[in-house]
Amino acid sequence: MSSLARIITRASSVRVSVTPVTLQLRTAATKATAAAAGKPAPKAAAKTAATKPAAAQSKTTTAAKKKPTTKPKAEAVEAKAKKTVPTKKVAVKAEKAKKQSSEAELAKKAARKELLKTRAKEAKEKVKAKAKAASLRQREILKAQKIKARAIEKKKNYLEKALLDAPVKRTRKLSAFNVYLAEKMGGSLSSDGSAEQAQKVFIGHANAFKGLSESDVQKYADIATKKHIEDSRAYKAFIEKHTPAEIKEANAARRWLLKNKIKKGASVQPLVDDRVPSARPANMYAVFIQEQYKLNPGMKFQDAHTSLHDKWKSMTDAEKKIYRDQASANKLEYNAQLESLGLKATSA
């Protein structure tokens, strides 16, 4: 329907534009005919002819002007729709762009908020970790201090229990030369106390001792014997001044001090208490070996070890019973001695 209206409109405009041209052509033809006949051109007819086409032209133009204004309703709706559709599309696009912009802004704000939240959380965790590390360090410091305090207390305790004021027990008897050297070297060392100077002094005294008379040597020998007896009595008196349990604790403390390099030398050598049995009771195999050595005094150790071991393995339980009973009796006697001294009996 709209196509048909467009065709009609175009035809009307063509007709209006063609009519004046036709009139002009007719007028020119009339004038040429009159000129050829020698007659003037009819003005009235020309005027009428000119007026009529002009009126027709005016009428046609008015009709042409009026006709386009009376468009069909469908075409008007379509034109309106064509104008409206782009406007709606632009509006929709604008709305969509606005919505997208708003969503992007919201997303940006949310991301920013999440970032700030994450940073705050990380900072909080960092502070927490730092506090935890400080707490751990503090705990380690306190732990180290406690360990150190316990070590100091333990050291103090062992130093007290070690009985370090005990006289030194001599493993061998003093000689005349020992007494002479102790007497002479008291003030003979140089002021710097170097090892080289001490060696020279020692060699000098040794050579001097060799030049002593027999009476002088005997004099120093008597002094050595007397000194040895005095030291032995002092040592025994010191041991008997303490209980066997205290002596046992002192030996344990001395071993600890020596192991931890706190003390060394003769000051921490084990105390010897003659009141306590020196050896543990022999087991049944040891009782058997002792008996066989008594029966065969000339037996060599290597031969005895092989032959007696084979003999022990070949014996029956009934034959071993006498040695088992003897070992049990020895153990009971040993434990009774320990208990009488206030010491703990052995279980093995």
UniProtKB/TrEMBL annotation:
Residue intervals annotated as DNA-binding region are 278-342
Any one Gene Ontology cellular component term annotated for this protein: nucleus
Query: Where would I find the HMG box domain in this sequence?
Result: 278-342
Q: What SUPFAM superfamilies does this protein's entry cite?
A: HMG-box
UniProt region (Disordered), positions on chain = 31-88
Per UniProt, the ranges with Basic and acidic residues bias are 72-81
Q: What is this protein called?
A: HMG box domain-containing protein
